[in-house]
Amino acid sequence: QVQLVESGGGLVQAGGSLRLSCTASGSIINYNPMAWYRQAPGKQRELVASFSSGGSTNYADFVKGRFTISRDNAKNTVYLQMNSLKPDDTAVYYCNVVVQATVWGPKVAYWGQGTQVTVSP
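The structure assignment produced for this chain is given below.
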């Protein structure tokens, strides 16, 4: 079994910073973080940042220059560093990773449980 645990959300004032973490545990042969998404109340889930198949990073226009996605495969963890936060960044943030639990098993996509980020004016 594979579990994903997100952490790092909270309440911060505009202009502040937070770092989100998403760690996978359990039987893991291959860990491949894919992206961070977010969902604000009454809105659809949207892509915030992602890794391409070649390992480069991609960002939504509304976070470019402010957010950074990174990974530590040795720790089965993906991070989202968020700087210069704005009230519009208020949302529940979700990580999305692909994990292979056994050598001959399938690669399965998992979602984190979500972590609330609230940015006050």
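Interim note for the steering committee: Residues 65 and 74 are 26 Å apart (CA to CA). The radius of gyration is 14 Å.
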